[in-house]
Design goal:
The complex is a heterodimer of chains A (678) and B (183).
Chain A (H helix, E strand, L loop, with lengths): L20 H18 L7 H7 L14 E7 L7 E4 L1 H7 L3 H4 L4 H7 L52 H12 L4 E8 L5 E12 L5 E12 L16 H7 L26 H8 L5 H7 L4 H8 L1 H12 L1 H7 L3 H4 L1 H10 L4 E6 L1 E2 L9 E5 L2 E8 L5 E9 L6 E4 L9 E2 L2 E5 L3 E9 L2 E10 L8 E3 L12 E5 L3 E5 L12 E5 L7 E3 L9 E2 L2 E5 L3 E5 L2 E4 L2 E4 L3 E5 L8 E2 L3 E2 L14 E2 L2 E4 L5 E4 L2 E2 L8 E4 L7 E5 L14 E4 L3 E5 L11 E6 L9
Parallel strand pairs in A: 7-11, 28-34
Antiparallel strand pairs in A: 1-2, 1-5, 3-4, 4-5, 6-37, 8-9, 9-10, 10-11, 12-14, 13-14, 14-15, 15-16, 17-18, 18-19, 19-20, 21-24, 22-23, 23-26, 24-25, 26-27, 29-32, 30-31, 31-33, 33-34, 35-36, 36-37
Helix pairs in contact in A: 6-8, 11-12
Chain B lengths: L9 H5 L7 H4 L5 E6 L4 E5 H4 L3 H9 L5 E4 L4 H19 L3 H13 L3 H13 L3 H15 L4 H8 L7 H10 L1 H4 L6
Parallel strand pairs in B: 1-3
Antiparallel strand pairs in B: 1-2
Classes of the chains: A alpha+beta (678), B mainly alpha (183).
Chain lengths: 678, 183
């Protein structure tokens, strides 16, 4: 889905918010074009200097220093440098004619006496991946790769280079993301310089990366190159910032260099160890492997390595949502808490504002750290068409009705899902004129959000009380529900929202679970879906179901199959712990692939508050009971519950009774909150 | 499955592949000599040697060389690496992802832990990305859910922690040690 044209001209302030990188990149492009017209001799414009200011991390905290600027053509295989500004030439000692027109790899030969320390500082890495893929980038390490070598004959990177950062740069560029960092450079004459830099991929309207811009702010560095030994790199981000003024390269010296005989694997650079081996392990294995030896311990302590591990294990969509959450908690601790579930608790929060007129049967979903509510059944069964947002980043979150240019027809019993970080998609439901099968999308971060209808392919039959989920960040899956005539459905449809013209298509499966409504669809292991519960057709009856089914949409011919789940009877436990049959319950996909079930309309006298945990990826999946301290909600419904920021399960309307009170929110915290830290 | 004619990387591939264009068919396939650190000589076809990015750049810098010394590489892992690259050349000529996947899986399955671990620095030094990926994944799979002691002996790493330090680590990461496989 391409961004609307007018958004290209957004203000630079947008730069700070997540999901805005595409737009900012475009404003960079315009700046570059302007500057080229003005000629190379021009002084840096004020606009550029403002781009250097970064309130988030103080990255460019020498805003008065002149800004160096390099542009390379990403459409050419070798990424030739097409522009360097005067500042670059003055500060590096390289003349434009030595650089322009040459590709990065040729240029390496010119520049051996550069060496780089990437003492890094990372911005939160936002998810732009859905828009971007560029196979060229796979071979592209770093526009100034030559900077990493010092010895003229060196085939390897200078030992000062932090290998983890280099791999991060590669990864960011491969995925079309911006990178920010700090490096220690050397002028042509060998003078060391601290270089705070930002690499920005520039995309055309189709999302193809056309250019890469490197923006550098240089300042003086104080290091003694004669007292450096391998491996030298920073330990943690927090330590790093303390030392930035007085850089001491010997500090990180490890016992590795003192060992005369080392085993083969430890001959590998930290980059290979971290990027290629540790990154393939689970967060838990990484925590354990840290006890193997000091060097690996040092590597695994690096929060950036831990983040990479979590991203690989849980998927980028999942970790992207947790970015803000983990700012202070750290990825290592988060991984532990989400594995052991030691910090899970219920708590209540009160939010301001109001959702008026009052309603029920709306749909809620999370977009980043915002909770979005659309539609619902108002007074006298009036179908509602308004959109509300609860921004949980705010100091005092409050419900706000957002003004949208146009709204879908009012409805209830529809599905609402989030994709591409800030986009929402509404499908189906019951409207004033009967059941619906229309699809609308909205970019919540747009300046003037507007619902737009999508009508491609053959949409599913009109339906209500169906279930939906998003796989791989941008593919909407819809299944089941019931028709106007009350007939239950069992089909599965997919809408790929990454494409220019999204088309509905049915996923043909030889066998499908019994037709049902009010079931849950939970994504795990990236492309797999677990279906649980619902009101299912059973002969001539419709009964609550307690069955679980699974499908892998990555299969060539995806097919549903029933998941046989045993009940784990723990020591001293009297009864089996299989969750009782239910419908319109809550199903939460946990980062490590486990699924949490609670609430809903439960058969018999069972409590809806009891939490059940299942790992569908286990060889013999078995349900476990999860006991959670704190006051659970009396009821919890699937359509009014969502997971914000990856770890906060927010239950709206957790009180029984006629009125839906949306100012009292129950929260199931999956990880400890930074503000509740001791 | 895309045929080689529409492969986007065709231009880079054809320069390394036999059969060569007509004008060159008369020439015998060029051989390149590699010398391991334990002074074993390996004569390999140029196309295979060009799979090693390190060797390739060596030749670009000094094209007249006839023997490439590989001071960081011993004979055994080098022979295994050559074996792997020979197969990859075939897959480049006749792309068959399924067969390639199968071959790669078998290649690592039949290797001992030590062979795998010894090949990684070689693949890394010679910059053979595909092999490095295959090896690293195989190693990651083999140490998944294993105890610290198992991982140490797997890699042949000595424990350089003091007893107190190790005890402290074990307390800190107690959660990560639960339920690991038997050694």
């Amino acid at each position: 889905m391409s961004k609307p044209q007018e958004e290209k001209y957004e203000e630079e302030e947008e730069f700070q918010s997540s999901g805005k990188r595409l737009k900012c990149a475009k404003s960079f492009k315009e700046k570059r074009e302007e500057e080229e017209e003005d000629g190379e001799e021009e002084e840096e414009t004020e606009g550029e200097v403002s781009l250097m200011e970064d309130t988030r991390g103080g990255l460019f905290f020498y805003p008065t220093n002149p800004t160096s600027f390099v542009v390379s053509d990403a459409l050419e295989l070798d990424f030739p440098i097409i522009y360097v500004n005067k500042v670059f030439q003055i500060l590096t000692g390289y003349q434009a004619h030595e650089v322009l027109g040459r590709n990065w790899f040729d240029f390496k030969a010119l520049a051996y006496n550069f060496s780089v320390e990437l003492s890094y500082w990372f911005s939160e890495v936002d998810l732009l991946a859905p828009y971007l893929t560029n196979s060229h980038l796979a071979d592209f390490v770093f526009p100034c790769r030559f900077l990493q070598n010092r010895d003229p004959r060196a085939q390897r990177r200078h030992p000062l280079v932090d290998p983890v950062v280099v791999s991060e740069i590669r990864r960011c560029l491969e995925e079309g993301m911006e990178f920010q960092g700090e490096l220690l450079n050397f002028r042509k004459d060998g003078t060391p310089l601290v270089n705070r830099f930002r690499l920005v991929p520039i995309h055309d309207d189709d999302g193809i990366i056309t250019h890469i811009i490197g923006i550098q702010v240089f300042s003086e560095a104080k290091i003694d190159l004669n007292h450096v030994s391998y491996p030298v790199f920073k330990e943690t981000c927090s330590q790093r910032s303390d030392q930035s003024a007085n850089y001491s390269p010997c500090r990180g010296q490890s016992t590795f260099s003192k060992l005369p005989e080392i085993c083969g694997i430890l001959q590998l650079s930290d980059e290979v160890l971290a990027h290629n081996i540790l990154s393939r392990l689970t967060p838990r294995d990484v925590a354990s492997i840290g006890s193997v030896c000091r060097r690996i311990r040092q590597l695994t302590k690096n929060d950036h390595v831990r983040k990479m591990v979590c991203q690989n294990a849980w998927g980028r969509e999942v970790t992207g949502a947790m970015e803000l959450m983990t700012k202070r908690l750290g990825w290592g601790r988060l991984a532990r808490e989400l594995t052991t579930l030691e910090a899970v608790c219920w708590r209540k929060l009160t939010v301001g504002g109001a959702v008026e007129p009052s309603r029920c049967n709306f749909s809620a979903c999370a977009a980043g750290n915002k909770l979005v509510l659309f539609g619902g059944e108002g007074v006298n069964m009036q179908p509602m068409d308004d959109t509300f947002v609860l921004d949980l980043d705010a100091a005092n979150p409050e419900w706000q009705r957002i003004s949208v240019k146009s709204s879908p027809p009012g409805r209830w019993g529809h599905s609402l899902s989030c994709f591409n970080g800030s986009w929402l998609v509404v499908f189906g439901g019951c409207g004033g004129q009967g059941f619906l099968n229309d699809t609308f999308v909205l970019d919540l971060d747009a300046k003037q959000p507007a619902w737009k209808e999508i009508s491609g392919g053959t949409p599913p039959l009109p339906r209500s009380w169906h279930s939906s989920c998003t796989i791989e960040g941008s593919k909407l899956v819809v299944s089941g529900g019931c028709t106007d005539a009350g007939v239950l459905l069992s089909d599965t449809y997919l809408l790929d929202l990454t494409t220019e013209k999204p088309m509905w298509r049915e996923i043909p499966t030889s066998w499908a679970p019994p037709s049902c409504l009010g079931h849950s669809l939970s994504v795990y292991d990236r492309t797999k879906i677990l279906m649980f519960g619902g009101l299912a057709k059973s002969g001539h009856l419709q009964l609550r179901s307690g069955e679980a089914y699974t499908i892998d949409l990555e299969d060539e011919e995806p097919h549903w199959r029933q998941l046989e789940c045993s009940a784990l009877t723990g020591i001293g436990s009297q009864s089996s712990v299989v969750p009782p049959p239910r419908l319109d319950h809550v199903a939460v996909s946990m980062p490590c692939g486990r699924i949490l079930i609670f609430g809903g309309s439960v058969a018999g006298l069972h409590s809806p508050s009891q939490l059940f945990l299942l790992d569908p990826a286990e060889e013999k999946p078995s349900w476990r009971i999860l006991n959670v301290p704190g006051q659970p909600p009396k009821v919890a419904w699937g359509h009014s519950t969502c997971v914000v920021g990856g770890t906060r399960v927010l239950v709206l309307g957790g009180h029984t009774g006629e009125e839906w009170i949306l100012n009292e929110v129950h929260e199931l915290c999956l990880a400890s909150r930074q503000d509740s830290e001791p | 499955m895309s045929s080689s004619t529409d492969s986007p990387t065709l231009t880079t591939e054809t320069t390394q592949l036999s059969p060569q264009p007509d004008t060159e068919t008369a020439k015998p396939t060029k051989k390149i000599t590699l010398k391991s650190s334990d002074n074993q000589i390996f004569e390999v076809e140029e196309s295979v040697a060009m799979e090693f990015a390190t060797v390739k750049s060596f030749f670009e810098d000094s094209p007249s060389t006839d023997t490439v010394p590989l001071p960081n590489v011993t004979a055994k892992p080098l022979s295994q690496v050559i074996e792997f690259c020979k197969e990859q050349i075939k897959f480049k000529a006749n792309p068959d992802e399924a067969q390639k996947k199968k071959y790669n899986a078998e290649f690592v399955t039949e290797k001992s832990d030590k062979d795998l671990v010894d090949m990684i620095p070689v693949a890394n030094y010679l910059e053979i990305k595909d092999l490095l990926d295959v090896l690293n994944q195989a190693v990651a799979d083999r140490i998944e859910n294993k105890s610290v002691e198992y991982v140490r002996s797997f890699f042949g790493i000595d424990n350089d922690f003091t007893a107190e330090e190790e005890a402290a680590l074990r307390r800190e990461h107690a959660w990560a040690y639960e339920g690991v496989d038997e050694d």
